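INTERNAL AUDIT FORM
Audit reference: QA-55
Scope: verify that the stored structure record matches its stored sequence.
Auditor: D.O.
Record contents follow.
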Amino acid sequence: MNKVKITHPLKRKLYEIIFEADTVAGKIFDVFLLSLITISVVVIFLESVPSLQIKYWPLFHTLELTFTFIFALEYLLRLWVLPQPMKFAKSFYGIIDLMAIIPTILELVFPQLHFLLVIRALRLLRIFRIFRMLNFLKDSLVIVNSLWAARRKIMVFFFAVILITIIAGTVMYMIENGQNNGFSSIPKSIYWAIVTLTTVGYGDVTPITALGKTLASFIMLLGYCIIAVPTGIVSASIAKEMSKHDVNTQTCPQCFKEGHDTNASFCKYCGEHL
């Protein structure tokens, strides 16, 4: 395929600082960025406390505008240094970086969306690339890849659970309806089935008839059995992923994917030189 190189000296230098964690400058940039993200999330938490919001609102507002400006500038720099910026914009980290900016803009029209800024916490995922945290990065990739590989089995299982809750809720409605104990509709009975099947048991809706209690006991026992199914599916998938090679912290300048082998010189996804 036709590969695109970063030939501009300034862009290449900024790329190494912004996208890589293998250099001193890259590590300093990532630590600084993650510190700002952490502080911004803490500010959002503190702002949700009514007494602090009233007393320190001007300070919180100023900090929020400052953080948004810095994150917006960083996002634009990421797009500027790349030869194909739209690929990064559509990538996982690109979407997360954009989501860290948009809430502040939306807040001007919809003030109730202010606390969506807590989404910025997702940007802390970049910490796995700092200081060569290879084991953490490898473990995170194992989990993500395992879940993706088992997605069809999980979806089939989830669909089966939905059917069970619908059937159980409907049957319980037929049994308990008219007893003034909360089973006033099929949707509310399905809610009870979900709470019971997941072993949460709020207790706000409970059966009182003998047949209803018998069905509830069966659903409770079934809930414990159901918990083991997804665990087995994911465990088997993780076991397969554990056999994969170690990975490094290199980010491909062409497709922006990570997870390459430690001795890799080229991207295993698109062939670009690392």
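Auditor finding: record pair retrieved intact. The two ends are 16 Å apart (CA to CA).
Action required: none
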